[in-house]
Write a structure and sequence with these properties.
The two termini are 18 Å apart. The longest helix has 13 residues. The chain is built from 9 helices and 8 strands. The protein has a 6-stranded parallel sheet, with helices on both faces. It is of the alpha/beta class. Helix 3 links the parallel strand 3 and strand 4.
Amino acid sequence: MSQRGDILLLHGAFVGGWVFERLRAQLSHLGWRTHAPDLPLHGPEQAGASPDADLARHGLAEYREALEAEIARLPQKPVLIGHSLGGLLAQQLAARDLCRAAILLAPVAPWGVLPGSLHEVGTGVNMLLQGGAIWRKPLPPDAALAVQYSMDKLPPALQRDACTRLVPESGRAIFEAMLWWLDWHAASHVSFHRVRCPLLVLTGSDDQVTPAATGRAIAGKYPGRAVFREMPGMSHFLFGEPREAALFQACADWLADLPPAE
């Protein structure tokens, strides 16, 4: 089968490129070349390890620079598929005209997009109540919280496997993305008007982290360019959930309608 082009997959917080293993298999079967790099200090060797102090020096700008370097290695502009925090980074890269299309899966909202639920507000407040300046330190993964709020739809065996692969995350990046109203530097800002490529925004109806209302609001920032779909019965983690096949099909159908890569 002839290749349709390159897809760069951008993972979210506390995980690595491994979350896309199942999706990559589907995309490869459809003729896409896929790439799922780990963000800095998010490799598999970090799972179960003590947080690397250098991680705290990485924010959204550093993550974005690493992804820009990955894009520069490709022969043409890729399609981006970003999950959660990766969905925010995908929007920022699209605003820099570094992709020809983007799929945002349960994306974290950019600077200025108001929370779509009380749970989103509570998440930010709980971070502040943890004590200390979270933007100055790496954060260890919390498997219990991940299972409760993100992996709640995964079968137990997949929950256990995913939890063993969680890695520490930069408190700075989490602060910039989740507490944007306190970030004077507006690190999560997206110049919406500079995004010219088509976008597909998919969020689960039962997502507690990025509720459907937030996904709809994000899509609304790109009038005429973004399509929003709410995925019934799906939560935030998405990969491995019982309705995963419907998500993959939605991505495949939308990708099939894209014009050929130049």
